[in-house]
Amino acid sequence: MENVLRPLTVLGGSVLLTLVLGWTVDLLLRRADDRHPETPLWGLLRRCRLPLQVVLLTALLRGTFRATRWRIIEDHQDRIGRALSLVLIGAGAWLVVRIVSAAVESTYARYATSTRDPARLRRVRTQVTLIMRIVTAVVVVVAVAAILLTFPDLRTIGTSMLASAGIIGIVAGVAAQSTLGNLFAGFQIAFGDMVRLGDTVVVDGEWGVIDEVTLTFLAVRTWDERRITMPVSYFTSKPFENWSRGGVQMTGTVFFQLDHSAPVRLMRERLHEILLDCAAWDGRDWSLAVTDTTPSTMEVRAVVTAKDADDIWTARCAVREQMLAWLSEWHPYALPRIATAAAPVLRRNGQRPSDSTESDSAEEDSDHARTGRG
User: Fold this and answer.
1) From the CA atom positions of the chain, what is the Rg in Å?
2) How many CB atoms lie within 10 A of CB 132?
3) What is the value of pTM for the model shown?
4) Of 7, 26, 188, 363, which sits with the fewest C-beta atoms within 10 Å of its C-beta?
5) Structural domain range at position 299
């Protein structure tokens, strides 16, 4: 009787305990999902119930199968133990993949509900798919290597697989130096506060605003709505202008090329009047001075200030437009003049009028000499 009850107790107890634990975990996840409907993670984790139960049942049987004291089990306990170990390793890998998949899909689902941009959703979906493939490949390789290590004759192969995976990782790291460099540069930018979202920068001669920052690239949105994608290593290896560092207040200049007779004093007064009527000027500072001269013109520089990059652009354009209009209306002599001369007029035979006159006079003198008439 004991030979029947003991195996039934061991096997039945393992199955019953597995079912109870699986039901309990599923109940807790279902309640968490009901309390937090905004987080899809708990509902996705419920898909892990089957691999979890397989892991629990295999682990319980692996630890208690010898307690059955069945003759057939005692005769083949090594094989049965190895078989249960193989199932446990496979079920464990299955469970890990399911948990990672639930976490990744939950993150993507929350991102998709807060973002309406289809391009960004496609990009994130591509990243999610790639991450899942990488995780699945790594878990499968580790699981297969662990399975091979359970066989004494195949331990060398399993060890070689792990060593090969390490060598492949080293080779991949060497081949992807640029990608890894961008990755570490992304960490440096993220935690070094070199550049942030919304900063106004000038990179490679282009003025724009940082629109997107990732660990591998940055997107700069220019004034004409173009997007310039640049690797983050550019910002750690080359100098660039960040107009938002140390405050967003800006100082701008407007240059005029004028005649030497331009009324600089009146221009200074007019500049002040323009700035008083300009809403983009923040009132911090302004000036106007002659900064350079040439044989034909002089350079006049106007300095204005504004609270940010957008306003400084507006103020500079307003000063340039209104100052030129004022000079053209009231002081046109101040605008630069270009000296020009009339072009010579050619006859049909290609001779200038002066040349033709001289030729005609020479012919008349020759005729007079021949005829003797003066």
Assistant:
1) 42
2) 15
3) 0.45
4) 363
5) 250-334
